[in-house]
Write a structure and sequence with these properties.
Layout lengths: L9 E3 L3 H8 L11 H7 L6 E3 L1 H15 L11 H27 L1
Antiparallel strand pairs: 1-2
Length: 105
Amino acid sequence: MKPGSRDEQYKILIAGRELEELRKFTWSMADAFGLDRRIEKYRGVRPLGLSRWDLDCLESILDLALDDEKEYPEKSGPGYEALKQLADRIKRLREEAYAEMERQG
């Protein structure tokens, strides 16, 4: 489902190593209604507005990326740690978004 113009946007700042690692996986966002292009163009200066749909997509992609044995054979290192940190932040933001949706009824 494509996000609508009235869908709530959730802001998150992604910069530095987090953004660098995330960009390695934009190819897997091809079916995400332009999320791949938005992240490629994003510079990490201002917070990025994401819909619940975007958060769902990012959570799935980051989970797969963190389990990628070729990209991260050892579950350590600065790249893995940065992506793990981003995945945790996305997960918390997604949980907040869905909790807010439930409160609104």
